[in-house]
Amino acid sequence: MRTGDTPAKERVAMTKKPPHIIVTTPESLYILLTSEGGRRMLRPTRTLIVDEIHAMVDDKRGSHLSLSV
To answer: Which residue stretches of 1-69 are H helix?
Structure first.
């Protein structure tokens, strides 16, 4: 799990040993995509599952998510 509340120590650990599954927010996904360590962590990713997208598709978070995806 990675959100804005995830402690820095855990974030660094994730970049060094990427988890098999990442549960995150659209905002944290954007941060991962714009950081070198985050991109390295996401490089082996083959599948993205977006649940409940209809709940945010019409607002700023939905636009932000669609750009990240």
So the answer is: 8-16, 26-34, 36-42, 60-68
Taking the CA atoms of residue 38, residue 39, residue 40 and residue 44 in that order, the dihedral angle to the nearest 10 degrees is 120
Q: Are 1 and 23 in contact (CB under 8 A)?
A: yes
Crossing angle for the helix pair 60-68 and 26-34, nearest 10 degrees? 40
Q: What is the pTM of this model?
A: 0.74
pLDDT means per 10 residues, the chain with 69 residues, are 79 83 86 90 87 80 85
C-alpha 20/C-alpha 14 separation (Å) is 10
Residue 18 CA to residue 38 CA, distance in Å, equals 9
Q: What are phi and psi of 2, to 5 degrees?
A: -135, 115
